[in-house]
Amino acid sequence: MTVVVVFILFAIVGLTAAALTGWVIATRGARTRNNLLENDIAAATRLAETAQARLAEGHFREQQRDAELAATRVARDAAETAHHATQRTLEIAGTDLASARAELAALHERLAAKDRGQVREGRAVEEVQRVLAPLMERERLAAQLARLEVGPSRRGELPRLVDAIAEIGAFSTVVLSDEAGLPLAMNRQSTDGEMLAGLWSMLLTVADRIATSGAPVPISVVVHDAANQTILHRLFSTAGSRYLLTAVSRRSLDPGALDPALSKLERVLAMPAQIAS
Fold this sequence. Notes:
The protein has five helices and five strands; from the N terminus they run ααββααβββα. By secondary structure, it is an alpha+beta fold. The protein has a domain of about 130 residues: Dynein light chain 2a, cytoplasmic (Beta-Lactamase), CATH 3.30.450. The protein has a five-stranded antiparallel beta sheet. The longest helix is centred in the N-terminal third of the chain and has 145 residues. The N and C termini lie far apart (about 220 Å).
């Protein structure tokens, strides 16, 4: 019995020791596994954190890229809009420029036509003035000669009347001579009055011959000489005597240019010789 009891006791002790040993081993294994698990969990945590950080970084970069792409699209859209606006502005400016050029060309044409019209009108006016100039000058000369004033009707008035005729008509020489070719009066600026009176007294003789032939008697003779002078001779009679009034000019003269002054001269020449001064 004792042996059995001892054997049982040893068996129990052995089993207990084995159980304890197994428990110790199991506990150590569990600890080891726990440590490994904790290490794995820590490593996984770190991997997760790293992955989370990378994911966050990737998300940030994606957001940044999206923002850059959006900004690029906005800039591109703005550039395209600006380009279209610029093209439209250029098209409008080109249209406006073409219109302005057309208006400018039309204006130039109108101005040219106006200038041509003005030139034609100016030429027409010049032609009318050229045609009317002799008539206007004759009318002016006639009006001013007709207004000549005569003093006390003495022959002493003749030099003043002749000077007035020369001034009004812008004549270089005015000379009044009798049928013998003697000068009765000449203007003060004359240098050839006496010569003209002597040379052209023959006109009175020519007039006599023409009258004898039965032809109309000449009363006015216009001569254009080699010095480009126009010499106007006016033959007239008063109180039974004949006279010759001669005027020299650089322009054309009408045969009747001196006629308005004849009545003034005739009034003075008609006075009796004994009261003439």
